[in-house]
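To whoever picks this up:

The parser on our side crashed when reading a file containing two proteins. I've narrowed it down to the boundary between the first structure block and the second sequence. Both blocks are reproduced below exactly, byte for byte. First block:
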Amino acid sequence: MVMGFQENGHITMERRNAKTGESEEREVTESVEKNWEVYPLFGEHK
C-alpha cells in the first residue's frame, strides 16, 4: 500500500495487486491541527 500525506490533511492511498495489476485508490481528508505546535517567530523566543 502506498500512502501520501499532505500538510492540509489530505491523504491518498493506493493498493495494488501484484498478480493481477488491479489497483484501488482512496482519498480522505482529516484534521491535522493536533499534529502541529505553535512556535514563536525567529528572534521572539523568551
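<<boundary where parser fails>>
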Amino acid sequence: MFSYSRTDRKDFKASKVIGGAGMGDTHSYRILYAGPDPADKNRLLIKKVFRTNEHTYFYEDIRLNVKDKTVHSKAHNLFNDMKENLTENEITLRNQYRTHNLLGFSLYWRELGSGKNHMSIIENHSWVPNQSWSLWFKTFFARRDAYNYLKGRWTCH
C-alpha cells in the first residue's frame, strides 16, 4: 500500500541516511552504531532508532556500499513505547501475547549507468486475522508515518 519508486539526478548526501525527517531535525532519531560492516569490508553499517510519532518507534539498519554506491535500509516497528517504564516480566508477557502486525520497510538507492539514480521504498507487512478496529487503525497510522518519515528524509535532504 505504501510503496514508492522514482528516478532522478539528485546526488547522494550522507544526511539522507544519517539525518532526520527534515532540515534541522535532530530529535526524532538516535544513532546506536556507525562503523564498518562486519559482513563486508566495502560497506558501512549504521544502526539507529527513529520515532515517527509520540509512541511509535522503528529500528533501522542501514548498509552503505561505498564501492558499488548503493544504500539499503531496513526499518522494523518496535512494539513497545521506548519511554514507557516496563519490567522484564511485563516485556516478556507483552511479547508472548502480542497480536500486532509485523511491519517493516525497505529503502534501496543506487546509481544507474545513465547518470540517473534509482530510489524505491517497499512496505513489508504481515496481517493478523480478526483484529480489532483500534489495532487496525494503530497499524495503519504506524505504516503511514514510517513511510512518510523515510520518504521525507530522502527527498528533503
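After patching the parser it read the second block fine. The longest strand covers residues 43-53. The mean pLDDT is 83.
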